[in-house]
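Continuing the batch. This is chain 6 of the set; chains 1 through 5 are on the previous pages. Same settings as before, nothing changed between runs. Recording input and output for traceability.
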Amino acid sequence: MVIGHECAGIIEEIGSEVKNLVPGDRVALEPGIGCWRCDRCKEGRYNICPDMKFFATPPVHGSLARQVVHPADLCFKLPDNLSLEEGAMCEPLSVAVHACRRANIGPETNVLVMGAGPIGLVTLLAARAFGAPRIVIVDVDDYRLSVANNLGADGVVKVSTNMQDIPEEVERICEVMGAVGVHVTFDCAGFNKTMSTALSATRAGGKVCLVGLGHNEMTIPLTPAAARIDCREVDIIGIFRYKNTWPLCIELLRSGKIDVKPLITHRFGFSQKEVEEAFETSARGGDAIKVMFNL
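Output for chain 6:
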């Protein structure tokens, strides 16, 4: 099984009916191919197409290869001021952009991000680009919180992995966020504790958007989130991949409204030895955020 779904490259050949691309064009690839026949595709929600072919989702091979064949309408030209690395970052950034759209992030939306991993960090960047005035990010790791600080978070809160610490941590989160409170929380980790914290920290009438998938099943305080003495009525929304995000992501990067370059921490070539070293580097964590292969 060939893995890989965050990619960009240079067009080598085109089909006879392709009109929008020529060999030599630098492009970012959207990895999911909808069937374009089902109701969901026809409604424009091709990201939840039941017959989608997605890079590196079995049995479809991924893009960790020297060449791939892909539909022209899912290959997006990169401006001259963007690198192929930035083009590859359109995929994780698309997750964040889709989440911000789903949660209706804007200039009156204070945002809490659970998890300062790669997706949490691009969600921080996307929420800021969408106009969020105050963004607080939470994690268990000091280094990743320092990265979040450098990327412009308005506040960071270090937490533990212990469920019993939730009440005290929610109190600290609310103090750091300020009197207005949390309008939208993005859970970019997807664990029992992060989702429970998100539901407790989000203000009445707010939203919790589940982005991360740490657990296949979670036990969370759902009833208190829906209705309790302080009138919660917190909406829970989910996202699955993304739709129609690449043009916006490329524009956000081109214009400088979002800079993903600080997230690219390691670079490797494409020899067998370097590929193995890259995966080992990523698995160790530490200061590794996004590890890039350059062919």
